[in-house]
Amino acid sequence: MFSPQLHKILVVSFFLLSFCAQGNLAGFLPKFSFKHFFGVSNDGRQTPDLKNLALSENGDDIHQLAYRISRLEGVLLLNKIITQSGGKIFATNAKRADFDATVEKCKEAGGSIATPRSPGENDAILYFVKYFNTYAYLGIKQSLIPGKFQLLNGAWLNYTNWYPKEPSGRGEEECVEMYTDGTWNDKACNRNHLIVCQF
Ligand code: MMA
Ligand code: CA
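Structure tokens for the assembled complex are given below, as produced in the milestone run.
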């Protein structure tokens, strides 16, 4: 029913709105309030105000929805709640986890672990690594060939940003972390790093 782009924006919007509703981003964005985007239902829970978005096959409804989403996207970008590069959106929940838990959290949210495929995408992830001054795991893992890395879908990398002399683990470091300058290091998968997802 939605284009992949609209679907992605909806998923990331509700991922972030649910964290905000739980107050999990308190402190991350102290001056910003999401209250304009919520109505309060009679059971007291906060729910997104989507009453004007009853959808049909009517193209006008889709345009209204696209317009509303683009305004939400503007707010999220303005406040650096999300970053983007090309068509990809990146976001964090400001929490830490090891590699497996990060993969799981991002999946649960309808996305996947942040995986830079270009300098622009690397920078979009780096924004959060710098903001929280915390390394992040990337969606890259050692292949069956020790010291050779691939995407989680098994594809070989056609963009890399290794720190000088990395990867250095020779089979002992199966995951990849992003340093606070945006360069990459192969590393054990059990560290607590910043959760950054892509959508
Ligand atoms: C650590 C560890 C490695 C990294 C080296 C760089 C000593 O090991 O983080 O993954 O390659 O530091 O000196
Ligand atoms: Ca290393």
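Residues 166-169, 173, 185-187 surround calcium ion (ligand 2) (CB under 6 Å). The CA atoms of residues 85 and 121 lie 5 Å apart. Further analysis is deferred to the final report.
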